[in-house]
């Protein structure tokens, strides 16, 4: 379950309310203080928070219960009966609190949900009674015989709890989608889409639930209604999140989602924000990391107009974020189908991307440079690409990318820098089959930089993929200019088999002399 990293004191303050509620429930046994049905008071309580807030509270409570169940199993293994019992009492309270809190803000829960609520509460009570008896006995044989029963009960509680949470989340997804489908109010629809987006951020499992309940279909209906134009960016952002799972992709294909995205991207009356979010959906569904994109047959039918619109978006981008989304979509498409590279060449995309790289307002992070160099690497398989690269001063850019370093030390940024170094070396290796490119690269001192990356693990952040790419590029350039290498470099980095040079460099200790 997705949890935002926050300061430990702040987390403790947030958890404090749940823990004190838990102690209250322990005393009151989930019974209301008043015996009368105070409908007005109940309504006030349930309306204090939005649906989104209530769901966040529910998910947090569920995370606590799930964690506690795991800890109980660990303590049970060590026969720490007193701890097991106290944690069982706490679980009992958390379960009752969660069910009460949920029933306070939902009015139409199903019979099946009520059935699982009762089963879970009964099983938790039974569990507490079991562990209480274990605390009161000191007979090892009795404890040993009861342990299997407790393990069985714990497993059953975990199953009931999982099924109840699944039903609750499905029910809430259905409610939100029903609101979106039935409401003519922009405000209500916007609120429901916002809550739905929050759910998608809780992980792939929730995205699957939303997709199975028809979330992709419902959201594309919004994207086809002019009265909701102002909600297109938010709707498309939610769609991008849902389409990280296979169920979402299948739904997108069924409702001609690609055609809808193509229409949005090519419609100049839409805002830049709408175009950027449509590009984000394209980037998501064409991600090379997904294994379930093969069925997107309709994408090929619309690819030319999508690529054209994305190139235009890169050219006219007003910010680095917009450029990043558009270039990421283009980079993924070049993996998706080789025909895309030919289309990009025809559209003069190489010049547009190389020009953008000199504008720090647009290309200001390793993430953006990663997208650009990915496109260059994939386009470099085309013979016509070499002249375009030279004309656009692309060799100089690739040389600069070999020096890519993280300024923050953030792990994601470091990984992006490694990818930039690797792909720039790959691009150089591919383009250097053209003598003119190789000559330009040698003039710009690419060989000494490649040698440095091979010999110095810190320069490449100990990345093996960067090392392999640099060795390949160095060998290609060495063919064109054997005099550019010292004999030791030639003997160690060029002459042996690639695998032998690789092993030599990975075992090499850096000299600080």
From TrEMBL:
Pfam families: Insc_C, INSC_LBD. One of its GO terms (cellular component) is apical cortex. GO terms for biological process: apical protein localization; asymmetric cell division; establishment of mitotic spindle orientation; regulation of asymmetric cell division. Residues 61-513 form the Protein inscuteable homologue C-terminal domain. Residues 4-48 form the Protein inscuteable homologue LGN-binding domain. InterPro entries: ARM-like, ARM-type_fold, Armadillo, Insc_C, INSC_LBD, INSC_LBD_sf, Inscuteable. One of its GO terms (molecular function) is cytoskeletal anchor activity. Transmembrane segments: none annotated. This is INSC protein. It comes from Campylorhamphus procurvoides.
């Amino acid at each position: 379950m997705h949890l935002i990293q926050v300061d430990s004191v702040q987390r403790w303050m947030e958890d404090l309310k749940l823990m004190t509620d838990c102690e209250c429930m322990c005393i009151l046994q989930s019974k209301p203080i008043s015996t009368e049905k105070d409908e007005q008071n109940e309504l006030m309580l349930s309306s204090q928070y939005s649906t989104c807030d209530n769901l966040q509270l529910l998910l947090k409570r569920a995370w606590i219960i799930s964690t506690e169940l795991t800890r109980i199993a660990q303590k049970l293994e060590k026969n720490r009966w007193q701890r097991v019992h106290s944690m069982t009492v706490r679980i009992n309270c958390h379960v009752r609190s969660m069910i009460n809190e949920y029933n306070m803000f939902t009015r139409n829960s199903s019979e099946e949900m009520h059935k699982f609520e009762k089963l879970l509460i009964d099983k938790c009570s039974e569990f507490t009674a079991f562990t209480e008896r274990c605390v009161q006995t000191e007979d090892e044989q009795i404890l040993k015989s009861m342990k299997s029963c407790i393990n069985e009960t714990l497993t059953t509680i975990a199953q009931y709890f999982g099924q109840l949470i699944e039903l609750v989340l499905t029910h809430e997804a259905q409610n939100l989608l029903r609101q979106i489908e039935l409401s003519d109010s922009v405000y209500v629809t916007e609120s429901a889409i916002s809550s739905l987006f929050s759910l998608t951020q809780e992980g792939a499992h929730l995205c699957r639930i939303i997709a199975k309940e028809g979330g992709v279909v419902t959201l594309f209906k919004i994207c086809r209604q002019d009265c909701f134009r102002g909600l297109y960016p938010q709707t498309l952002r939610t769609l991008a999140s849902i389409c990280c799972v296979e169920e979402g992709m299948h739904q997108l294909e069924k409702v001609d989602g690609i055609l809808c995205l193509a229409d949005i991207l090519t419609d100049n009356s839409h805002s830049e924000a709408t175009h950027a979010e449509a590009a984000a959906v394209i980037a998501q569904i064409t991600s090379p990391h997904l294994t379930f994109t093969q069925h997107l047959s309709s994408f090929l039918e619309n690819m030319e107009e999508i690529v054209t619109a994305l190139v235009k978006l890169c050219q006219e981008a007003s910010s680095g974020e917009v450029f990043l989304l558009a270039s990421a979509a283009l980079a993924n498409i070049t993996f998706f189908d080789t025909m895309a590279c030919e289309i990009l060449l025809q559209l003069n995309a190489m010049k547009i991307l190389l020009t953008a790289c000199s504008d720090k307002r647009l290309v200001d992070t390793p993430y953006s440079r990663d997208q650009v160099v990915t496109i260059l690497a994939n386009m470099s398989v085309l013979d016509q690409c070499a002249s375009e690269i030279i004309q656009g001063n692309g060799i100089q850019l690739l040389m600069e990318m070999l020096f890519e370093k993280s300024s923050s030390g953030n792990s994601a940024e470091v990984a992006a820098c490694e990818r930039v170094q690797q792909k720039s070396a790959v691009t150089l290796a591919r383009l250097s089959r053209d003598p003119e490119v190789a000559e330009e690269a040698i003039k710009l001192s690419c060989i000494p930089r490649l040698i440095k990356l091979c010999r110095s693990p810190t320069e490449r952040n100990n990345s093996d993929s960067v090392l392999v790419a640099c060795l390949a590029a160095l060998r290609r350039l060495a063919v064109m200019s054997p005099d550019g290498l010292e004999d030791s470099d030639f003997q160690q980095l060029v002459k042996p088999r690639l695998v032998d040079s690789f092993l030599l460099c990975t075992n090499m200790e850096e000299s600080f002399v």
